[in-house]
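User: Hi! I'm a student and our assignment asks us to look at how structure tokens line up with a sequence. Could you show me two examples?

Assistant: Happy to help. In each example below, the sequence comes first and the structure tokens follow. Example one:
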Amino acid sequence: MTNPPSPRSRYHALLHEPTLHFFGIAVLIFALYAIFQAGSENVLELDQREIDARIFMQEMTSGEPLSDQQREIITSLYVEEQILVQEAMAMGLDNDARIHDMLAQKMRHVLSGDIIQPSQEELATYYTANMARYRTLPTVSVDELVFDNPGQLPQAVVDLLSTGADPEQMLGLTEGSQSPLPNVNHIDLSNIFEPAFADTVFAASIGQWNGPFVSNRGQHWLRVSQRNETRLPPLNEISDRVRLDWISEEEEMRLQEEVDKLWDRYTIIITEAEQD
């Protein structure tokens, strides 16, 4: 008759049972997870829809489906971004004035997100009310003659300048260069040269040389070849410009209305710093 196994041998048999090993490992894992979660405050809950939206936008940009590896990269970048945002907020970096400015600008874009278009009647009304904005400035087309010599010119060149001669005649007598300046207004000439010289050119007769204006390039002479008086382009000629101006002002007005509504939801208290 076989003797029954001793309690000690039964204990050793249980220790070598695979099922018991698996159960023990599972209990240990769950215990460690519970302990870790109980002591952790950095639980970050993320919405899979946000990740899917980023994957979708990337696929729209590339025009083809992303591989599993590319999806994992996008997911990792999103998680990393959210971790950095949480850490930045924990460090109080969201109280930075520059961050506030960016958030305010972002909110403005959100509030004015709708794309609006004017009707033909609204466009015509806006054009009529802002005609002064679209009226062109008087312009002149001029020939510019630059002599390399900033000092006294040969008398033959001076005589040719007084008669309004063409640049080629004078450049055959002294070194220099010529170039046209088409359709420049008073502001353009003032920026290129100086306001006083621009006044002289605009007051001059067509075909008359005016100068000199001395610069580091030499001495400049200008001759008016054509004048263009101020004009108001018809609406059909500048409709795109008028439409963009209308949209810009309308969006700004609607945005301000939305901002004003937000103001009504807040009680504003401004405290003054205590004097030392």
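Example two works the same way, sequence first and then tokens:
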Amino acid sequence: MKNLGTKTLIHENFVLRKFKLGDEYDMFKNYCNDKKVTEYITWDPHKNIELTRGLLISWVTEYSDTRYRWAIEVDNEVVGSIDLVNQDLDKKVGEIGYCLGLKFWNKKIMTNALNLMMDYLFNEIGFEKLSARHLAENLNSGKVMINNNMKHTKTKEILVKNLENLHLIKIYELERKDFVKFTH
């Protein structure tokens, strides 16, 4: 495997790039404070921009040649994030997590961002298997995975940190040999 870290990846409709100080304004406005966006993820909506700034500072300082985290930028504005939330470099496996501002849903942005990221992780870094998970009731997140040829491998019940109850989680996986890069 090559440890190249987060590099800028360009799509015709957006850019995946490293987060940088100053992004907290877009992050807070577009998704971090939105109850609908955070409904299915493990953190609560931010009540103020200071929380977003603190998160951003931690993300910016964590970058290394083995850290993969991108800001999703549309028209020079950060509208979401996509990253490896877990990885085992020895086994060449990683788990992807993502989040996107509500007004950017259903525009194929996340589907294409996931494809672009997986292309980089499989073909430039050398991962052999990538996975992602979503709450069973978050069907749109599952569609993003299915649209990228990821296969549902298991469903399990877990206690989700900020959701206070047991929830069914659907887990999807994709091996490098089965990856298909989008041509659009």
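Here is something you could point out in your write-up. DSSP finds five helices and eight strands in the chain.
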